[in-house]
Amino acid sequence: MAQQDELSSSSKHVAAAGNDPNLDTPTPIQIWTVPEAQQWAITDGDSAVMEAETTAGNAGPAGANDDPALGTQFGLAYREKDAPMNQWEVIAIWAIDAFNQLSIAKQQDGRASDRRLIEFDGRVIDADVDTLTFDPDDQIALVTNGDDEMDPDATYFNYDMTVYRN
Amino acid sequence: MSYPETLTADDFEWTPNTAGRETAVATHTVDDDRVLMADLAKPLLLALTVKQTVTVAANSTETKSLDPEAPRVPYLPDPTAGEYNRNAYLVGLYDASGDGSKDTLVTDSTDVQFDGFGDDDDFVREITLSETAGNETEVDLFSVVRAGFARVRRRSSGRDSTSDQLHREDAVRWAFSNPDEPEGNREINWNNSNSGIAGVVGPEQHVDIMFYDGHEVLSVPGDDDADPTNLRVALPFQKRELREAETPAQVREQVRESMAD
Asked: Under an 8 A CB cutoff, do A104 and B260 touch?
């Protein structure tokens, strides 16, 4: 049976991970693991709600606060159950500015949602695929590539998904 | 004839949750001669509350960083704008009369008073309280929860008890929904899958509010402390009496057959 749910930083299946700003590759901030007897499906083109915070105040373009630098990129990635630990396949990439310039309350507003659509990267996912389904023990991660260390506990992320319980 | 019925906080029996486990925090049992049906056209409100306590020393000022921060819920009164109210999204209560119950509302002119707020668009992050009467005072602060998930489910009871979900939402989305601004697309309505028999709750079946979070424990009516006055529940239903040809068991059977398998 299919149920609407959210891929969310409040989920009970999420674990915090510290991203590594020294690497040139995207590293995870938060990792979701699909639990036993469930399948998770995420769809191209829904709008996400996100607020990212860094662990330390910074003096980047966004000023001396907890906002990550404006050049920071975020993405969604997945790793299949038996893949090597660092093998994250990034399926969608977006920039921070559409999110951190709006409060979380304003992001709930449908009128401001078009800049926050998550779209699958055509180089990784075929253009005619609009739903990805993940099996038990597959992992999905919120990843980042930027100069700052993110605070996984203060970073808020929310994206619609469908859960199939077997 | 059906008529609208909105389940509010008073219609539920409350139980505190356990951190890290999904718990039924509230249960409503449908009367044995009534049938409820989810009213898809009306907005749902669900603002669950958490409590934190701050002690202010005599004749002094105390600044408290709120943990968790209080979301600025758009449809509740806003204390940072001077709307001190028992229904506000952030309520402070203390014991002014010395009778042991914290039942006096903190405003900007009480013995213990709000002196300032540290806030941004989303959250009140810290508050400053000052004490003017010369007594060390403990203040209970009730705020709307910003963490976790809340979902509404229906449940049949008895030997063949089954349950399924009517609606599920992240707590932040519950907090920032806004039924006063429909054009902003910020109201939360029943999930459309609740049309027809899927949204019907039969006689003596239950409507449960489930809550999960990894570390927050809710403050609910009926536990030992003062009740949270800003707890807000409004779940819209249509209600009708059983028809003469119907028996409760029949209706329950119909509903149960349509539930998750």
From this structure: no
Q: Contacts of residue B261 in chain A, CB cutoff 8 Å? A: 1
Q: If 0-12 CB within 10 Å is exposed, 13-18 middle and 19+ buried, where does residue B184 land?
A: middle
Residues of chain B with Cβ-Cβ distance to A10 below 8 Å are 147-149, 170-172, 213-214
Q: CA B121 from chain center: how many Å?
A: 22
Would an 8 Å CB–CB cutoff place A108 in contact with chain B? Answer: yes
Q: Please state the length of chain B.
A: 261
- For B14, other C-beta atoms within 10 Å of its C-beta total 20
- The predicted model scores a pTM of 0.89
Q: What are the phi and psi torsion angles at A60 (to 5°)?
A: -70, -170
ipTM of the complex: 0.83
Can you give the pLDDT of all 166 residues of chain A as single tens digits?
Answer: 788 889 999 899 999 998 998 888 899 999 999 999 999 999 999 999 999 888 887 655 544 577 888 888 999 999 998 888 888 999 999 998 888 888 888 888 888 788 899 999 999 999 999 999 999 999 999 999 988 899 998 899 999 999 998 7
**CB contact A5 to B (< 8 Å):** yes
